[in-house]
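Good day; I would like, with your permission, to put a structural problem before you. A protein sequence and the structure tokens that stand for its backbone fold form the material at issue. Thank you for your consideration; the sequence and its tokens are set out here:
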Amino acid sequence: MVARTVGELRAALPEADDLLAGLLRVAEATRTVLEVDGAGLTLVHEDGPPRWVAATDAAMELLEQIQHDFGEGPYLQAYTQDRAVVVGDLGAGPTWARLDAVVGQLQVRAVLSVPIRLAGQPVGTLDVYSTRPRAWTTHELEAVGEFATVAAELVHTSVALASRELEVAQLQHALTNRIWIEQAKGVLAATQGSDPEEAFQQLRARARASSRKLSDLAHEVVQDAQRERLAAMALDDVRVREAEARAQAAEQALRGAEADLAQRRAALDKREHAADDRDRLADERDRIADERDRTAHHPD
């Protein structure tokens, strides 16, 4: 299964401008073949450690983003130490306690991270996770390694390496530029309803018109989109809190109205009982008066 899937991926290596789509296909294939709950890839950037570039689901995206933000985690350890990192249960020990506190609510339990290598140097990682504790087998570790090799070949194709002796610094620069451009294309295509090629032509035209580097403009487009996304999420949170407050106020008002209605009903019942008592007393007085009249008219 692994060999066949790897062969199919190699046979369909995309052109350089389909790098992210190709990496996502590798992640999806890894998740399917290993029967895990999620998979993702990270790649190096000039401005720091690797960051996620493809993820099969939101939990995987959060898992890798949190590690980048914390500056620690299995994928960062796999990258910096250039070795596979196997975690059977994030919550089993203190090593990843801070990470587990964040992603534990998403049921991320077991994690496996394998470095992606080019020219003998790590340039990123391929990562998988399971929602249950898992004893990763040697076969699974080797399978992830095979898919990591395919990912490396995709990256190699995308940046058109002149030779395997290319300096890692040059590779990082080329990868960073390529990734920013790919992500900017995706942002523009999604927001404007265009296809990736139209988005790329628009991006290139804007760069030329402003005499800027294409990668610099792409970086700006992606960061602006991220800020807008965070602002929208914050606004949604505010709206949710406001809606919850209104619902709570309405519930309190309903309880108050129900309590007032209960008091009114109790008072009405009390008045009805008093009226019934008065009617009974009046009837009794009438009966006694009738008895007296009969006695007065018939003394014997």
